[in-house]
Design a protein that fits this description.
11 helices; 26% strand; 14 strands
Length: 320
């Protein structure tokens, strides 16, 4: 079972404009509403094909926005445990300027969570997690949870035998890492900030060097955008190379990468295959203005994803 913890969900509303008129009136040609927040983007990878991926997403919802998202959850047949709150769930807007091929993101601040709502959420999560389950902690934290929310919850669940995966930023990431989750996923900037690396030494080559000698009990994944991914699992370090594509909007690609990875690992696939699947799902998402995965893209680019060991040995399973 995969549990996805999404403490700061949103209604993602994409507005499609011919042109964004600065200091003027812009009229949308069309719009699209989606379940949003990093955790809800993660589960898109679980629903992309016919493979049965058992999962539950745990989240807070409240207000008129929360009610609307509840209807989308039912419509999309999303397996969820929702803790209702007094506050109103945020709206995040993606404004697409089609003529200039730009996407502008505006993220609202989430609601404040009360101590009672917090405790109900944590109790439900702990009760539902069993030994061997994957638990993905994804995204920012709303007011009321505290920067140590991930760290405290990970510590409890790791003791239960769960495999916790952390994907956050800032203080919640730094504190969460102290609980030694099974896997930490960050982007390049977050990786250097986490390790307090001097600006002069922040380059892609140093990511590989640092990971090779990093003394930690956690596995690590560092996503590098179009430059691929570097991952350390146990004593093995892998470098993922991607084909060049024309990116429309990379929003949610890191979340979809994480979902694809967890999906493959849940299905018992080796880490090399999991990295390939994650990369393909993430790449497909970059080809659209809003979060989306198409199997035709996955099939087209499958042979173009290269996974290499640090020593330079290409894994034949995933490059042929």
């Amino acid at each position: 079972m995969i549990h996805v913890v999404c403490p700061n969900p949103a209604l993602d509303r994409t507005l499609f404009l011919k042109t964004l008129e600065i200091n003027g009136v812009s009229r949308a040609v069309s719009s699209k509403d989606l379940l949003g927040g990093k955790g809800f983007n993660v589960i898109r990878s679980f629903k992309v094909d016919d493979k049965n991926t058992p999962y539950i997403i745990h989240s807070f919802l409240g207000g008129y926005t929360g009610e609307y998202l509840q209807t989308l959850i039912q419509k999309d047949d999303v397996s969820s445990v929702i803790t209702e709150i007094n506050g109103t769930t945020r709206i995040c807007s993606i404004i697409v300027d089609e003529d200039n091929k730009h996407a502008h993101l505006i993220n609202e601040i989430g609601p404040s969570i009360t101590s009672t709502e917090h405790q109900i959420f944590v109790n439900r999560l702990i009760e539902s997690v069993n030994t061997g389950d994957f638990v993905l902690f994804s995204g920012s934290l709303p007011d009321g949870l505290g920067h140590d929310f991930y760290a405290k919850t990970i510590a409890i669940l790791e003791k239960k035998g769960a495999k916790c995966i952390l994907d956050s930023s800032g203080l919640s990431l730094a504190e969460g890492c102290k609980a030694n989750p099974w896997l930490i996923k960050v982007n390049e900037l977050e990786f250097f900030e986490l390790l307090e690396q001097p600006l002069a030494k922040r380059d892609t080559d140093s990511v590989e060097e640092i990971l090779s000698v990093l003394n930690t009990s956690s596995n690590f994944i560092v996503t590098l955008g179009g430059k691929g991914t570097i991952a350390k699992f146990g004593n093995s370090v892998y470098k993922v190379s991607l084909p060049k594509i024309t990116v429309k909007n990379a929003t949610a690609s890191g979340d979809i990468f994480l979902g694809g990875l967890a999906k493959s690992l849940q299905n018992g696939e080796p880490i090399e295959k999991a990295l390939q699947t994650a990369s393909l799902f993430s790449l497909s998402n970059c080809l659209y203005w809003y979060p989306n995965i198409e199997l035709t893209d996955v099939e087209h680019y499958q042979s173009q994803i290269k996974i290499t060991n640090v020593g330079g040995t290409i894994n034949e399973i995933i490059t042929r």
